[in-house]
From TrEMBL:
Protein name per Swiss-Prot or TrEMBL: Ketoreductase (KR) domain-containing protein
Keywords, in A-Z order: NADP, Oxidoreductase
This protein's record includes keyword Heme: no
InterPro entries: NAD(P)-bd_dom_sf (IPR036291), Sc_DH/Rdtase_CS (IPR020904), SDR_fam (IPR002347), Sec_Metab_Biosynth_SDR (IPR052178)
Pfam families in the cross-refs: adh_short_C2
Family: Belongs to the short-chain dehydrogenases/reductases (SDR) family.
Organism: Xylaria hypoxylon
Record-linked SUPFAM superfamilies: NAD(P)-binding Rossmann-fold domains
Gene Ontology terms, MF aspect: oxidoreductase activity
Length: 244
């Protein structure tokens, strides 16, 4: 959804996924739609060496990176007394640590944007890091997805911390706390509980592609250049809805 929004507005977009076939098919489809382009770099972000290879491939093609969207994530649910230990390290690595890893590794390309003459001393045209969080990092869900909620809450605070370090370098760092969208991760819930999910939302619907794409484009644009360290809820107000 986010990639499609940027490509539709003329951007060159790199996407990474451990599913090489899906990654490459999506890149071809988005490039065909245009007017921008999409390039696939299949990557298993759980593996640090794969992250380094991804960054090397981007560095070989680009001298600057205007926008980094840390979007890859996973979830796991199980009762408290059955929750597997390995699903803590897996979920926290992918959802939280790798957002830090990629920001760290891509920092030279992000800094190069703020160093441009048109950057006006890193003030007017900053690069943007956008972390995709969750309303589950703000509230306590009914689901027993302990490692997921912890990872997203951690990501929200990591965003705030990085914003203070990277802001002076001409890089904004913000989070979108997303509610329910029609994604692969939400496929089971949407198939079985769509009506209840939409009925429980103040807007009486789930998120549309343009909702999250538009929010990212806003943060990456001149209009969002003075927003730094924010957590923006993209959920129709669902996180505020009364549960009793």
């Amino acid at each position: 959804m986010i990639s499609e929004g940027f490509v539709a507005n003329g951007a060159k977009v790199y996407i990474a996924s451990r599913d090489a076939k899906a990654c490459e098919e999506t890149a071809a489809e988005l490039t065909a739609q245009g007017p921008g382009s999409c390039i696939a770099i299949p990557t298993d972000l759980l593996k640090l060496d794969d992250c380094k290879r991804l960054v090397s491939e981007v560095q070989a093609r680009e001298t600057q990176l205007h926008v980094l969207v840390n979007n890859s994530g996973a979830a796991w649910g199980a009762p408290l007394d059955e929750f597997p230990d390995e699903q803590w390290s897996r979920i926290l690595t992918l959802n939280l640590q790798r957002a830090f890893t990629l920001t760290q590794l891509l920092l030279p390309l992000l800094e190069a944007v703020g160093a441009e003459p048109r950057g006006n001393g890193n003030k007017e045209n900053p690069a943007a890091v956008i972390n995709i969080g969750s309303i589950n990092g703000l509230n306590v869900p009914h689901l027993e997805n302990y490692s997921y909620t912890a990872s997203k809450a951690g990501l929200h605070h990591l965003t705030r911390h990085l914003s203070q370090v990277l802001g002076p370098k001409g890089i904004t760092v913000n989070t979108l706390a997303c509610g329910p969208f029609d994604t692969k991760m939400m496929a089971f819930s949407m198939k079985n509980f769509r009506e209840a999910i939409e009925d429980g939302n103040p807007m009486k619907r789930h998120g549309r592609p343009g909702d999250v794409a538009g929010a990212c484009i806003f943060l990456a644009s001149r209009a969002g250049s003075f927003i730094n360290g924010a957590t923006i809820n993209v959920d129709g107000g669902f996180h505020l809805a009364a549960k009793m």
